[in-house]
Amino acid sequence: MPVEIRDFEQPLDYEACAQLQVDVWGFSAADAVPPLHLIAMHHYGGILVGAFERERMVGFVCGFSGWDRGRVFHHSHMLGVLPEHRGSGLGEKLKWAQRERVIEQGIELVNWTFDPLQAVNANLNVNRLAAIVGKYRVNIYGESKSPLHGSLPTDRFEAEWLVSSERVTKALRGELPGWPSWESLPRANATETATSGFRVSAKADLDIDEDALLAEIPESINKIMAEDMDLALDWRLKTRELFGAYFERGYAVKGFHRSEVGAFYRLEREETPSD
Q1: Of 13, 30, 71, 165, which has the highest C-beta tally within 10 A?
Q2: Which residue did the predictor score with more confidence, 35 or 30?
């Protein structure tokens, strides 16, 4: 069935968005952003775009304007797609629709947070959308009982999306970097496969002095959380130290690589990581 991408238009759209938060992330009704708040957000400059199968909402993206040290930006607060539509490219379509509306508002920067251990989100945000990450937020949302967070500290990357930049416009055209010989880059965290079949990370090397390096994450942190929460927490704490140290030294995430060996962020050194 064809899916229509359009702005929220009627009260039922906001109600459907509140319910979708419960369906997508397992939120309680109390944790979901309620319809009246969504309406206020939209009425006063926010962007709320839905994906609809006829009248049924199957995905959405929403955000609002923010301000920091004299710079106005759009904060993309939530992007959600029902499970049966994941892997279809619908989330990416919603983000590009969001970009169009942000540009219409005259805003150049969009930011959002995502879990650095979620490989699928990393590929979308860093490769498909060409966002850059140079900030790490420790336990930004505090403790959560949501199945989405699996009781791990809610550490997040803060992605920055310069919507009119050459990097982003190339991604929009499908011109993604080829990254030749990326496997030869130095690795900040050595890993091995445990008897459980999961990858286990050693303590990170925080002293690599190269223009680019790799940081490995699990192929599926969700599987690890379902079977070994101690290992999941170990991944959280070790990667927290790794990314925090390299971001402080002027590195930023510029790519994401996958192979039969594992999943790796590509960190590149630059003077201004968010540009």
Answers
A1: 13
A2: 35
